[in-house]
Design a protein that fits this description.
globular
């Protein structure tokens, strides 16, 4: 599963250009939580030749309408995605679960890296440095989560107050 974002303009354009009749009827779900009601509509179609992404089998269009509990419309969002799974490997319910799982990763890892570690403003850009630093950030997040820290920023501050704490988490 791969969520197509604006940093992939060719994929966004290719999926957005598909004719509505390329998609079978949508799979719909409704979920209530966090003071809102979300109506999701997922449409999938075989990946056309213009979607030049390795192993892409299907394209996905997820439309999410969010209302507050009083029924007032809050927002409508459209997300694009691709998957290497064909229709026989993942039914509509499985595809919705995969999309939601992708957002779990986005919220629990990428958001933490972007906000807590300010990764987007990193000055490390040469050689293997960016991959090494991303690995170190992922290690720090994982170690803190395994140690029971739900708030990574608070966990980083806790470890920074006494370097022995960080070594203790690593078993050193």
């Amino acid at each position: 599963m791969f969520t197509v974002k604006d940093n992939q303009p060719g994929l966004v354009e290719a999926i957005g250009a598909l004719a509505p009749d390329a998609f079978p009827p949508a799979y719909r779900t409704v979920a209530r939580g966090h003071g809102r009601v979300e109506h999701r509509s997922l449409q999938t179609a075989p990946a056309p030749a213009m979607v030049s992404f390795p192993a892409a089998r299907q394209v996905l269009v997820l439309t999410r309408h969010t209302n507050d509990l009083a029924g007032r419309a809050l927002r409508t969002e459209v997300y694009y995605g691709i998957t290497s799974l064909d229709a026989a490997q993942a039914d509509p319910a499985r595809r919705v679960a995969l999309v939601r799982g992708q957002w779990t990763i986005e919220n629990q890892l990428h958001w933490v890296r972007d906000v807590t570690f300010d990764e987007d403003r990193s000055q490390v850009r040469a050689g293997h440095g960016p991959q090494v630093m991303a690995g170190m950030r992922n290690l720090a997040i994982s170690v803190l989560r395994l140690a029971g820290h739900r708030n990574i920023a608070r966990g980083v501050r806790w470890a920074a107050r006494d370097p022995a704490r960080a070594f203790g988490l690593l078993g050193v």
